[in-house]
Amino acid sequence: MKTPKKEDARPPHSALLVSVLTDMGGGAVVGRMSSKLEALIELCKTRRASGSLSIDLKVSIVLDEKNNPCEVVFEATEKVKEPREVFRPLRSSWFVDKDGTLTKEDPSGQLGFTIINDQADKEQARPVSPSAPVIRVGTGTQG
After folding, report:
1. 3-state helix/strand/coil string of 66-77
2. Among 139, 134, 140, 89, CA closest to 115
3. Pairing of strands 114-116, 134-136
4. Is 27 left (phi over 0), alpha (psi -120 to 50) or beta?
5. pLDDT in tens, the chain (143 residues)
6. CA distance readout (Å), 102 to 9, 15, 46, 98, 105
7. Residue 88 to residue 80: CA distance in whole angstroms
8. Which 3-state string (H, E, C) describes the chain?
9. Are 115 and 94 in contact (CB under 8 A)?
């Protein structure tokens, strides 16, 4: 029977990285990184922006008493850069009546519209006249 050579015990170069990462912590490192990657993917989808997961693999050599390399030690750390959350600007527009009070309806009746800032305003909005347009602030549309 043929005795395997030392080189036969090493994984092929293409599998070395996977072998090292899988061996760390009995697979805990790969599990943790996979969980972080899955969370990052969900954040990227939700925020519709890019993020990144970086894996830093530190390689240290241990020397024996004759100053020869006898062991290679790997340490992995990961860094997640979450995608920036995109906030749309929030605005609110109001008319000022003759007493200085803020109101959503045109106090002069000259403009002929009611300002709508959000869904709550939309539900309560009453145009000055049935044919008057309603201005939706922040959307650039009229309805």
Report:
1. CCCEEEEEEEEE
2. 134
3. parallel
4. left
5. 555 555 556 666 778 888 999 999 999 999 999 999 999 999 999 888 899 999 999 999 999 999 999 999 999 999 999 988 776 666 777 778 888 888 877 777 666 666 565 554 444 444 444 444 445 444 444 44
6. 80, 69, 37, 10, 9
7. 24
8. CCCCCHHHHCCCHHHHHHHHHHHHHHHHHHHHHHHHHHHHHHHHHHHCCCCEEEEEEEEEEEECCCCCEEEEEEEEEEEEECCCCCCCCCCCCCEECCCCCEECECCCCCCCCEEECCHHHHHHCCCCCCCCCEEECCCCEEC
9. yes
Closest CA to 73 of 61, 64, 63, 57: 61
Kindly state the tokens that stand for 119: 């869904």
Domain boundaries, the chain: 6-81, 95-142
Length of the chain: 143
